[in-house]
Amino acid sequence: MQKETKVVDVRPVPWTSAEACASCELRLHYRVRGQVLARVDVAETTETVTVTLFAGRLPGDARPQHTASSTTLVTLREPLGHRWLVDGASRLPSS
Q: Is 75 exposed, middle or buried (CB count within 10 Å of its CB: 0-12, 13-18, 19+)?
């Protein structure tokens, strides 16, 4: 059995772009500075889909000074369709 690693100093991280890659999937691009993705929260309504990325650091890790680009896949309950896609970290709709 693997030991679960806890991520600390978890904070919302804005994503930089998003694209629909399957009927119910989104690929989100984001940038972090010495952090790892901790979780993704998704809130869906009939008019909007709000996706919030949360990142933090692993205990004992020194914070690297480089910025890394990364992506994550998010599965929605229903296709995005004509709903607004909102970044929960910045509360701004995507363009």
A: exposed
For residue 93, what pLDDT is reported? 63
Distance, in Å, from the CA atom of 14 to the CA atom of 81, rounded to the nearest integer, reads 22
Query: For residue 68, what are the contacts with CB-CB under 8 A and spacing of at least 6?
Result: 31, 32, 33
Q: Which two tokens stand for residue 67?
A: 């910025």
pLDDT in tens, 2-42: 555 688 889 999 999 999 988 899 999 999 888 889 999 99
Contacts of 22 (CB under 8 A, 6+ apart): none
The pTM (predicted TM-score) of the whole model is 0.85
- Whether the per-residue pLDDT at 94 is higher than 90: the answer is no
